[in-house]
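Project outcomes to date are best conveyed with an example. Our students and postdoctoral researchers have been running inverse folding experiments weekly, and each run begins with a structure described purely in tokens. The record below, which covers 600 residues, was selected by the lab manager from last quarter's runs and is presented without edits.
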């Protein structure tokens, strides 16, 4: 069959804007006839699409994603310190995965992709620029995965709009600022995985099954949290396929090259290598996905919505209506013609799974899944608007431009709104980075370098938190020393982590963290050093000045970020720390001790 023998669909070629062209997909392969007349009607637009337009859309998307990644990496790297605390955790897990666990460290485990990447890139580029580049690149992963999913469904310019929205959105910037690289990469893999899964429901080719298997393996090795979300969406997607295309699951579809047996084997077997990891991981963190919101007095959905409004605070005027429209898209476009579109099935699967999980758990990190559904819904609306019956509702005698004015205007306004909110999301990123910079104050890397070079490899360091967050992750990950990490429980997943954090909280609950009681208790816990960040707020400068005057060799490091105190049991046992010192150093320091400048 030649291209000329295929008749174009009605009104083809009459669309005023390039991104308004119907985004169909190729229905010429086996199984596509089960998708209904709507997909078949779009077949010719795919065949007639000029090849250079496909290349132009792909190149434009690549340029935008690279520019966004470079912008965010530069915004983080020029600060001079890593952004957020999570990268310290990834570095610790990475060294552990590479066979170099910390002595006396808590026994924890995590999917290996991001930790190993973090170790590799920081060894090449250094801790500041290595983490900045990884965060910048990861922030575009949801956009790339969504673009792939749209392109698998045949979308073109609407896929570009979806990718631009996700690349620049504030949720991607927020995760990049606090170090949520596993979540960002996992979201990109999830979007691509759903696109491949929808294709597999129709075609059942072994190549599709193999691609699905590799994506599933990559996702499972990247983020267990996003894997759970993807699994829920996949279940809904399969149910939709079973309801709308029952013949795809009927008799005779299980054997042969295009059968379910072959495809399921290729899809599931690669991930079997991670079964031992998940047997260790799930008993400790599996409950977190369901119960995280239980600590709040509010309902899980209320917690979820409150967190959502915080993350999308740069453009609530756009995201609130966009989320509402996305939630109702499966209903508004629920006719037979649109139910057989691959993007309709994916949007519906994400909507239903996200709603159920938000109601049950209130898991805040599910918020980062919502923009994928919004972007896919936006791409779907942009491609179906020209297919609606606007022409029949306009006077027959009206000019063609008048009859297409309504869909063209709506699409143009939508595209402009996406462009505006994307620009605003990028402009908002320095504010997001500055918020998380407070957890890694200037001088942190210098202090960690001192710890790496001047403390025993098997030293145990107790680290006070910053605003309740685990500053000690950086001591473990980059400082390469075992640590008792002070933190609020909401930041921690593993029971042993929480037990150690409770020990630090109890240890540093005294008004004076350098009192005899605190140091005696630290010695009993076999702690060699106390690391007290100034941002912690529990250490007064006069107290430190008095302590340094009484025991000048005990304060081994002091700069604008932290104070490191050597715990020396002999001093305590010999009675050099008196009860008056236990009460407070402040009175002793006021009259005679000058202000300590040190390295600060």
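After processing, the design step wrote out the following sequence:
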């Amino acid at each position: 069959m030649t291209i000329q023998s295929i008749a174009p669909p009605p009104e083809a070629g009459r669309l005023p804007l390039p991104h308004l062209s119907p985004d169909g997909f190729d229905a010429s392969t086996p199984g596509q006839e089960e998708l209904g007349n709507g997909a078949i009607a779009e077949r010719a637009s795919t065949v007639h699409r000029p090849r250079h337009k496909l290349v132009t859309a792909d190149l434009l998307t690549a340029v935008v994603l690279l520019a966004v990644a470079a912008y965010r990496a530069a915004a983080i790297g020029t600060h001079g310190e890593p952004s957020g605390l999570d990268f310290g955790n990834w570095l610790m897990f990475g060294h552990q995965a590479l066979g170099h666990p910390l002595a006396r460290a808590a026994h924890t485990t995590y999917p290996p992709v991001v930790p190993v990447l973090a170790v590799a890139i920081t060894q090449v580029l250094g801790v500041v620029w290595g983490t900045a580049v990884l965060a910048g690149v990861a922030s575009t992963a949801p956009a790339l995965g969504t673009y792939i999913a749209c392109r698998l469904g045949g979308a073109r310019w609407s896929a570009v709009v979806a990718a631009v929205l996700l690349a620049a959105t504030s949720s991607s910037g927020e995760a990049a600022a606090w170090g949520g690289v596993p979540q960002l990469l996992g979201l990109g893999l999830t979007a691509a995985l759903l696109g491949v899964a929808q294709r597999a429901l129709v075609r059942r080719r072994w190549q599709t099954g193999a691609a699905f298997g590799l994506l599933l393996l990559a996702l499972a090795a990247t983020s267990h949290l996003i894997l759970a979300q993807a699994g829920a969406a996949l279940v809904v997607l399969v149910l939709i396929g079973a309801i709308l295309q029952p013949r795809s699951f009927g008799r005779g579809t299980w054997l042969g090259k295009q059968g379910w047996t072959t495809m399921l084997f290729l899809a599931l077997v690669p991930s079997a290598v991670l079964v031992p990891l998940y047997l260790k991981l799930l008993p400790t963190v599996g409950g977190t996905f369901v119960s995280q919101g239980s600590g709040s007095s509010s309902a899980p959905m209320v917690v979820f919505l409150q967190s959502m409004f915080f993350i999308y605070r740069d453009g609530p005027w756009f995201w609130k209506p966009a989320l509402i429209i996305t939630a109702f898209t499966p209903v508004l476009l629920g006719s037979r013609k649109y139910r057989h579109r691959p993007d309709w099935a994916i949007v519906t699967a994400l909507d239903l799974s996200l709603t159920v999980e938000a109601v049950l758990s209130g898991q805040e990190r599910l918020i980062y899944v919502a923009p994928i559904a919004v972007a896919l819904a936006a791409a779907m609306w942009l491609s179906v608007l020209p297919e609606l019956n606007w022409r029949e509702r306009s006077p027959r005698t009206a000019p063609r431009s008048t009859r297409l004015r309504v869909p063209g205007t709506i699409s143009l306004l939508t595209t402009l709104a996406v462009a505006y909110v994307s620009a605003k999301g990028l402009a908002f990123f320095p504010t997001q980075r500055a918020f998380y910079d407070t957890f890694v104050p200037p001088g942190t890397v210098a202090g960690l370098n001192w710890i790496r070079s001047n403390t025993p490899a098997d030293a145990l360091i107790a680290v006070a938190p910053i605003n309740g967050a685990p500053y000690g992750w950086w001591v473990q990950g980059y400082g390469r020393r075992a640590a008792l990490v002070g933190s609020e429980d909401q930041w921690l997943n593993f029971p042993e982590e929480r037990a150690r954090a409770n020990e630090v909280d109890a240890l540093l609950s005294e008004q004076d963290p350098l009192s005899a009681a605190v140091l005696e208790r630290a010695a009993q816990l076999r702690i060699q050093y106390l690391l007290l960040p100034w941002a912690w707020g529990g250490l007064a400068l006069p107290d430190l000045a008095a302590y340094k005057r009484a025991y000048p060799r005990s304060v081994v490091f002091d700069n604008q970020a932290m104070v490191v105190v050597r715990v020396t049991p002999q001093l305590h046992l010999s009675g050099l720390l008196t009860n008056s010192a236990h009460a407070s150093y402040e009175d002793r320091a006021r009259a005679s001790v000058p202000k300590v400048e040190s390295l600060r």
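Residues 17-435 form one domain. The two ends are 77 Å apart (CA to CA). The training component of this project remains on track.
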